[in-house]
Amino acid sequence: MNSAEESEERCRRILMDDPENGAALRELGGLLAARGQSLQSIGDLDAAAECYEEAVALDPSQAPAHNNLGNIYLALGRPNEAAACFRSAIAADAALAEAHLNLGALLHRSGELGEAVECYRAALALRPGLAEASLNLGHLLEERGDAAAARDCYEAAVAARPDMAEAHFNLALRLLQAGDFRRGWEEYEWRFRLPELAPFWPHANRPRWEGADLRGKTILLYAEQGFGDALQFVRYVPLVAARGGKVILSCSPRLMALFATVAGVTAVHNAETPAPEFDLCCPLLSLPRIFGTTLETVPAATPYLHPPGDAAARWRARLALEGAGLKVGLFWSTESKNRMTPLRSLELRQLAPLARSGGVRFYSLQRGAAAAQPRPQGMALVDLSQELADFADDAALIASLDLVITINTATAHLAGALGRPVWTLIHFPPDWRWLEGRTDSPWYPSMRLFQRGRTETWETVLERVGDALQELESGPRPKKVSF
Hints:
It is a single chain. By secondary structure, the protein is α/β, with parallel strands linked by helices. It contains 20 helices and ten strands. The chain has helices at 3-17, 22-39, 42-58, 63-75, 79-92, 97-109, 113-126, 131-143, 147-160, 165-177, 181-188, 227-233, 237-241, 253-259, 287-290, 311-320, 341-344, 391-398, 410-417, 458-474; strands at 218-222, 246-251, 267-270, 280-283, 327-331, 361-364, 381-383, 403-407, 422-426, 447-451. The strands form two sheets. A six-stranded parallel β-sheet has the order 7-6-5-8-9-10, with helices on both faces. A four-stranded parallel β-sheet has the order 3-2-1-4. The longest helix has 18 residues, at 22-39. The chain is globular, with a radius of gyration of 28 Å.
């Protein structure tokens, strides 16, 4: 019998003799709650709730008991009762910082942001070193678009808990967004300690490259996270190759044909299969730190990706048969599954302001269910999605267009990497890589950003894009890049 079992047995013996022993009820409730959360046992959580319910009924002044009961209700999926418990805890003892924190987190999740801010600030006033409150407040302020205040919160969380990986990672994103690349890339290395990102580091136990000479060695560079990240940071491969050695680039099968065109690549590896032999490895997103990238030294020469073979020439010849008007590719909806997806996806109908440019012919680069959405009235839209199997196909078509208009997704990075004119629609709050308040990008000289403001609707942004497209249509055509 372990110590927890012994404590449980002792509490039960006490309660047999004294069913209204509040201390025993609270201790037994805590033991059952810990076991229920560890084993995901609803039965134990229900029993823990009963213990605390009896305890607070016997003595409503026990603020920690109200707070603990609220946490159990949360685990049982009973948020309204949890909120009532946290409020009762605060009423019993307004100095209980954890109750303010827990109520703030619950209100935050339910969208009651104003009161959530007050709760987090109350928790921090009571306990300035409560890292979880600083972290949560930073999340909330970030969602509201106050990046500078969010950054201060993450700094405070890191100071209070230097081992808090999530705080370091969030701080990294805000530093990078502010253009502080020196500190940002260092903090970004904390992503390796986030459990939810562990699948992205398949070679975590192998020797990592830190910038040394590679002559006589083989290095495996591997893509991580999303397609957009891979397309953005594959630009560093030629810099690695310049250190000598063989460079194997590991990536998704959908990227392989395109990435085979990157200068300095010895071989491209399918990341879904066992890796070949190598001496050192490095994820692509660690390369900016290794090369000491600052805003002034971003390796921004484009194109650094090229459509394989003569595919671009075939597309140009085909599109030439459709007349001399401006040819614009569109991508409006992402199927990726993360918390930002609803913010950055559009319906095709929302692109109606673009159809004001009557001489423009549009080409759908969209995949998935969104490709079948009804077209806005007056928009000449050619659906070529069935002919686009991978990113190499996308690249060949994009290289043949005059312009791409896209949401913040891999298509934006692909067009920028090809050196093609691209207008990128940036959701609010913006992703770190687009920096603060920019209409251009140091990563892609051919990119123009249309950032959605704090109180702006997508419809307003698209009106601006429609106006810009009309201006472009009436002016000189963008120059073509030869591939």
